[in-house]
Design brief:
- This protein is of the alpha/beta class.
- About 40% of the residues lie in helices and about 20% in strands.
- A hairpin with a 5-residue loop joins β2 and β3.
- The protein is elongated.
Length: about 140
């Protein structure tokens, strides 16, 4: 298990939100992809933020109540997202997931460009498979 890397488990065709995307479009993308959160990328596909369902819910409540103008993702995303690399150990990332809040981690290359996504679900499955091998 210690030699299993993020690159072996990650989803390789990640969905992302572009900077400047309006709040309702962000929500549409979250719902369409059944995602609890998505990375926000710049024009070079570098991860510059992360936006969650909770972020959107909070903003929709406030903006709907006050009928405020449109908000863009840049205004409410987390601008210091936690990311992992393809070469990172799944065991190390599992430890991060136990101690950190995010359920989904963008996987980035050396230039911080988005190359994949890793979820708790994927890590949990890999750990379960490893545990089963111990019982044999």
């Amino acid at each position: 298990m210690s030699d299993l890397t993020v690159g072996a488990l990650m989803g390789k065709h990640p969905t992302a939100i572009a900077l400047g995307t309006e709040l309702t479009e962000v929500v549409d993308q979250l719902l369409k992809h059944k995602a609890s959160g998505l990375p926000v990328v710049d024009e070079n596909h570098r991860v510059v933020g992360f936006v969650s369902e909770q972020d959107c819910l909070r903003k929709l409540l406030v903006s709907s109540y006050h009928c405020e103008g449109s908000l863009i993702v840049d205004e409410f995303m987390h601008d210091q997202p936690l990311t992992v690399a393809e070469s990172d150990s799944v065991v190390n990332v599992a430890e991060l997931m136990v101690n950190q809040k995010p359920k989904i981690y963008p996987v980035v290359d050396a230039q911080k460009r988005l190359v994949g996504m890793l979820s708790r679900h994927q890590v949990l499955g890999a750990l379960k498979d490893t545990r089963r091998a111990c019982d044999v």
